[in-house]
Amino acid sequence: MEDFIDKLPQMDLMRSEKMTLVQLIIPVESSHRCITYLGELGLLQFRDLNADKSPFQRTFANQVKRCGEMSRKLRFFKDQIDKAGLRCSPRHELEPDFELGHLERQLADHEHEVLEMNSNSEKLRQTYNELLEFKIVLQNASGFLVSSNAHAIGDETELHESTYSNNGFIESSSLLEQEMRPEPLNQSGLRFISGIINKDKLLRFERMLFRATRGNMLFNQTPSDEEIMDPLTSEMVEKIVFVVFFSGEQARTKILKICEAFGANCYPVPEDTTKQRQLTREVLSRLSDLEATLDAGTRHRNNALSSVGYSLTKWITMVRREKAVYDTLNMLNFDVTKKCLVGEGWCPTFAKTQIHEVLQRATFDSNSQVGVIFHVMQAVESPPTYFRTNKLTNAFQEIIDAYGVARYQEANPAVYSVVTYPFLFAVMFGDWGHGLCLLLGALYLLARERKLSTQKLGSFMEMLFGGRYVIFLMALFSIYCGLIYNEFFSVPFHIFGSSAYKCRDTTCSDAYTVGLIKYRDPYPFGVDPSWRGSRTELPYLNSLKMKMSILLGISQMNLGLILSFFNARFFGSSLDIKYQFIPQMIFLNSLFGYLSLLIIIKWCTGSQADLYHVMIYMFLSPTEELGENELFWGQRPLQIVLLLMAFIAVPWMLFPKPFALRKIHMERFQGRTYGVLVTSEVDLDVEEPDSARAHGHQEEDFNFSEIFVHQLIHSIEFVLGSVSNTASYLRLWALSLAHSELSTVFYEKVLLLAWGYENILIRLIGVAVFAFATAFILLMMETLSAFLHALRLHWVEFMGKFFHGDGYKFKPFSFALISDDDE
Amino acid sequence: MGFLVTTLIFIVVGIIAALCARICCNKGPSTNLLHLTLVMTATVCCWMMWAIVYIAQMNPLIVPILSETE
């Protein structure tokens, strides 16, 4: 048996790939190229040998800074392109070998150009705005001046009566206006200031002017038809044209200061109408010129941006790669002669030849005289964990990794999870109608796989797409379990033959009181369809599903224990086998394995024994006669034996292991407790890796109490956990009951109820409500719920039996893995 | 009798599935072992589910009592 297990090849995903610690000695001239090629290969995880240095003390800090500066410029270009609303499709042209300095100069030139163009167009736009405002003021203020000219000889009271509307302007006069004596404009020194101001500042402006001039002013305003772009906020704001009539020099300075404070722009409007018209014509022509210039400027800038935009994504990728290469180079050490860089890293053992080839290619390409030295080192610390997954197993591996990354070379639960996870999901979801819907969804995702993998999806869609194979398997198992539970949207079918139950006599008179009888062999596949809708359906199915959950749970926990046995065998720890695996197996199976056996015997014999009673009284009074609870001959002595075995197993898993460990430790270090500091230096004739020198030696003090407490916790956890974990599997029953009941309610109380009416509208509404309820509650909520609970069963109940999960994941230096928003 | 026959059917289906997996994706001994493990696990899970439900119905303690329908 042992030989057979040993002769089997190592299963693919079961244990982490073997990793080796390698040391690279790279001559400086080929270092950049080496790292670039290694990045393309993506199978080496570098160790940071300069972890204690700050980012500024490192060798290549300057280059990293330059890369950072370049990526800032690239981001600037991207912003500008987005703001200008251009869409550039990348033009694929093969550029010659990429050189950092060359790209830097190019980017600096482009940036300079774009910044210059931006500032020019800023200035132009400002001038354009001013002219536009001037034009508006001219157009609207002329209306005031005409009217005030006409009214100069009129009465004072007419000032607040406006008889004509020119572009819908409102004439509002100040309150003390009536006492003011109107004087002809030119003779009495009544002057005016015209300008334009933001609409929201108007009221305060007017009040301020009123207070400052003590009411000796006339304020006219009219809104402008056009909106003007505010240069600061780049938004269109509404402006109001105003004209202030006043007298006196002091008032003028005050008003001008107030205008400045409120950001109102004043433009001089000539009183003469011909001059006005001339000025308006001039302004209009200048405006059109400026518009043309602005357009030309924008087009020129857009051209420059497009030419940048073609290569933008390529440049961004290149700069990111360069930065990654320099970051990696920063992890290496210069050796004594300053001519070589020394690096250490982890790589999978199978990749050693590939890395060797890559390094040789890099040496050749960089025309270096000296080759790269590449050799294996002894590792002090534990290697990273690496599983080679394909797209099917990747999702399951990630689910397991979410709980904890497996320790180096311990058994990987993902191997069994590929099947047991969808299976347990299906036990809780069992309905082949819903399973078919899930299957359709999964097939859609699988069919559009290639297209969807290149697109950028939203976070929800990305999760769904990432788990497409999980959903596919879940759907297949759900269909199977649905056929077993015989539920198609909660409706049973007679697919596998007729029911095993029939009426006692032809009149079926007592079918509603005593029930049917079973007249032949059980229904060949799944639950008999006669159960649906009967009064005893729930008691029967509950009993069935609870026992099923216990049986499935004990099987999965035993599988976990067996995996712990294989782990112990792999690591050569016979202590674990003798003092942990065996007592654990005995304890679990003598109590709960026995319960499973009783369940099966009760089913096979149809005995009326009460299993609760049997189990509880096995503990309370084991020597008592069983009476009608006896399922098989010899049950009482067997129970006593099993109870004794369980009692012995508890101290067996608690005491021997810490004492055995202490004995081993004493034997190993006998007489060496004082010699540790001296001899350990001499002992190591193997080259010690750079990084380990920093850690120092791992000779820890053997702390017996700590080991003992650890073992105590482990044992108590197992003993108490065996009860709670077994009970935890009852969630399989609970969720499948919930699913079945929800589905029955929706079918009977929505669909059938609505179908009972003759009205087509009610039927349609019923179908719609049924569809929505099925899709959202059953397909989405129940899926998530069953997903979560199956996950919990795996993480805690299954993996708790053997999984340590304190490893770290293998993260190779690879260009493919550099994320998009990694700045 | 029906139990044994159907169990045999499950075993046969499992063997056929394992052979199909071996024929379709034959990628070296370690990967083959992985595929075999997956097929075996799936067969065992499916058989257990069926067997539990079948055995539970062999000697039932209660029978369906029809409920009053309107």
TrEMBL record, chain A:
It is a multi-pass membrane protein. It is found in: Membrane. Pfam families: V_ATPase_I. Its main location: membrane. The chain crosses the membrane at residues 423-446, 467-485, 548-566, 586-603, 638-655, 760-781. It comes from the Eukaryota. One of its GO terms (cellular component) is vacuolar proton-transporting V-type ATPase, V0 domain. InterPro entries: V-ATPase_116kDa_su (IPR002490), V-type_ATPase_116kDa_su_euka (IPR026028). GO terms for molecular function: ATPase binding; proton-transporting ATPase activity, rotational mechanism. Residues 100-127 form a coiled coil. Belongs to the V-ATPase 116 kDa subunit family. This is V-type proton ATPase subunit a. It comes from Microthlaspi erraticum.
Automatic annotation (TrEMBL), chain B:
It is a multi-pass membrane protein. Residues 1-20 form the signal peptide. The keyword Ion transport applies. The chain crosses the membrane at residues 36-56. Keywords: Hydrogen ion transport, Ion transport, Membrane, Signal, Transmembrane, Transmembrane helix, Transport. It is found in: Endomembrane system. InterPro entries: ATPase_V0-cplx_e1/e2_su (IPR008389). One of its GO terms (cellular component) is endomembrane system. One of its GO terms (molecular function) is proton-transporting ATPase activity, rotational mechanism. Coiled coil: none annotated. Belongs to the V-ATPase e1/e2 subunit family. This is V-type proton ATPase subunit. It comes from Microthlaspi erraticum.
